[in-house]
């Protein structure tokens, strides 16, 4: 408040004053000179005013619709169920799930913002005032006058009679609030265990047999898919690897024979690559097996997932001299002689081991899927 301003009114005088008087007094007490204070729409209910009103309402309505669309996308997970890439129509829908969430929520927030800005530009009085700067806290009289000022701005912009804008703005804020509330609530009502007992669930990989007794072979990546389709894939026999060698293998099942798409997908699926290691006999004699996995190896052959237990990079490096498996991402190291348990770096869990054996023709096959989820930790995982 300016020291040279008019004398502040008494409490009784203040209570008697109407809004205009308070406005005037507030300006004087604060040393504010209002240079311009035009009514945004001096002539009421013109076509231009109604047009401006509709434009504002349009953005609020769009925001409300986008907010509701977001809630609908969240609430109907059935539409977006995972479909693998072999199902062109289903996979396309599934791949739209995240973009649909982002677009609807983004549109809701953006439209609400545009609506608010447009409303401010079109309906809030644009006064030009000059005010002297003052220090210290505001007095009661200043607070009363500023409230009068704000109330006056509310009256002048005509919000009370703009029911279209009020309704659409309310709907927009409500829908957006619903969308924001839906985010944390949805994570509590979605059942992560539902339909997870299949090869596409987090607990399983492409090594899981599709039916009891299905033989899943260890397959090489020859780099020549055409040949694989025409002449058959290259399977691995127990005598194929030299002692101390390592090879990356993928699952193969008879049903994929000659099927270019299935053969290609088996190579590309992220949880399929397995590191097949043939230990040197002297090293094999020093192996320490994990409890419950004593028969997971076949002779000197050990198969570990290539997906790092830290954050899922491919652990592609095997150092024969030390029997260490290295992950290039954050330098975790795993001991191949000690059920691939981590011995250096940020990883805290061993690499999952694939149980393997040979069939009657000498081909290496998986005895089943991994006995645990591979790769990095996730919420439902206990260890
Ligand atoms: S992902 Fe392997 S160490 Fe981080």
Automatic annotation (TrEMBL):
Recorded superkingdom: Bacteria
Any GO CC annotation of this UniProt entry: plasma membrane
One of the record's GO molecular function terms: oxidoreductase activity, acting on paired donors, with incorporation or reduction of molecular oxygen
InterPro entries named in the record: QcrA_N, Rieske_2Fe-2S, Rieske_2Fe-2S_sf, Rieske_Fe-S_prot
Pfam families: QcrA_N, Rieske
SUPFAM superfamilies hit by this protein: ISP domain
First-listed, main subcellular location of the protein, grouped into a coarse class: membrane
UniProtKB keywords: 2Fe-2S, Cell membrane, Disulfide bond, Electron transport, Iron, Iron-sulfur, Membrane, Metal-binding, Oxidoreductase, Respiratory chain, Transmembrane, Transmembrane helix, Transport
Protein location: Cell membrane
Domain Rieske residue range list: 271-365
Membrane topology: Multi-pass membrane protein
Gene3D superfamilies in alphabetical order: Rieske [2Fe-2S] iron-sulphur domain
Transmembrane segments annotated in the record for this chain: 56-76, 96-119, 169-189
Similarity section: Belongs to the Rieske iron-sulfur protein family.
Function: Iron-sulfur subunit of the cytochrome bc1 complex, an essential component of the respiratory electron transport chain required for ATP synthesis. The bc1 complex catalyzes the oxidation of menaquinol and the reduction of cytochrome c in the respiratory chain. The bc1 complex operates through a Q-cycle mechanism that couples electron transfer to generation of the proton gradient that drives ATP synthesis.
Descriptive protein name: Cytochrome bc1 complex Rieske iron-sulfur subunit
Organism: Amycolatopsis echigonensis
């Amino acid at each position: 408040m300016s020291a040279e301003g008019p004398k502040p009114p008494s409490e009784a005088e203040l209570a008697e004053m109407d809004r205009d008087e308070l406005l005037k007094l507030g300006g004087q007490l604060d040393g504010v000179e209002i240079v311009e204070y035009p009514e945004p729409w001096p002539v009421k209910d013109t076509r231009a005013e109604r047009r401006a009103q509709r434009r504002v309402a349009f953005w609020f309505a769009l925001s409300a619709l986008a907010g509701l669309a977001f809630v609908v996308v969240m609430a109907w997970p059935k539409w977006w169920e995972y479909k693998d890439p072999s199902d062109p129509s289903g996979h396309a829908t599934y791949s739209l799930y995240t973009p649909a969430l982002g677009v609807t929520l983004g549109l809701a927030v953006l439209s609400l913002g545009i609506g608010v800005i447009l409303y401010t530009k079109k309906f809030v009085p644009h006064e030009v005032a000059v005010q002297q700067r003052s220090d210290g806290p505001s007095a009661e009289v200043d607070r009363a006058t500023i409230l009068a000022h704000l109330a006056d701005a509310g009256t002048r912009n005509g919000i009370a009679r703009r029911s279209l804008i009020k309704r659409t703005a309310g709907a927009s804020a409500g829908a957006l609030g619903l969308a924001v509330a839906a985010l944390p609530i949805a994570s509590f009502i979605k059942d992560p265990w539902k339909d997870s007992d299949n090869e596409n669930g987090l607990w399983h990989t492409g090594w899981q047999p599709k039916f009891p007794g299905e033989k899943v072979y260890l397959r090489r990546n020859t780099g020549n898919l055409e040949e694989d389709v025409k002449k058959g894939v290259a399977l691995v026999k127990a005598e194929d690897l030299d002692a101390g060698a390592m090879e990356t293998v993928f699952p193969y099942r008879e049903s994929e024979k000659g099927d270019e798409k299935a053969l290609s997908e088996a190579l590309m699926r992220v949880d399929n690559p397995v590191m097949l290691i043939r230990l040197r006999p002297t090293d094999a004699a020093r192996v320490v097996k994990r409890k419950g996995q004593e028969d997971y190896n076949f002779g000197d052959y050990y198969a570990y997932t290539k997906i790092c237990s830290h954050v899922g990079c491919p652990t592609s490096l095997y150092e024969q001299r030390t029997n260490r498996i290295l992950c290039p991402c954050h330098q975790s190291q795993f001991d191949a002689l000690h059920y691939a348990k981590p011995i250096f770096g940020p990883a805290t869990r061993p690499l999952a081991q694939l149980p393997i054996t040979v069939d009657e023709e000498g081909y290496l096959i998986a005895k089943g899927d991994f006995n645990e989820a591979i790769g990095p930790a996730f919420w439902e995982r206990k260890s």
